[in-house]
Amino acid sequence: MLKEHGRGVQEDAGQDQADSSRFVLDELYVGHAAVTAHRQTPHFVNYLSRINDLAERNAFVLDAVEVA
User: What is the pLDDT of residues 29-68, one digit of tens each?
Assistant: First the structure.
């Protein structure tokens, strides 16, 4: 669990078993406000300015669901 501006953030990275050149970064935030705040940080702004030149990027913002 990483801490960013007092909000809990979890980051996990994985490598695709079928395509070793594909990596997935999964970030978990405590709520929409934390996502919005993260997207305003200098490192994220820098990331956005560079990532499209480095890799294919697909971003998804999901809401948690309870599984019974």
Answer: 888 888 888 889 898 899 889 988 888 888 888 888 899 8
Tokens 């594909």 correspond to what residue?
A: 22
42 contacts 19 by C-beta, under 8 angstroms: no
Alpha-carbon span 18 to 60, nearest angstrom? 21
CB 51 within 8 A of CB 14: no
Compute CA distances 56 → 28, 46, 48, 52, 64, whole Å: 20, 16, 12, 6, 25
Helices (H) and strands (E) in the chain, counts: 2, 3
Burial 5-21 (b: 16+ CB within 10 A, else e): eeeebeeeeeeeeeeee
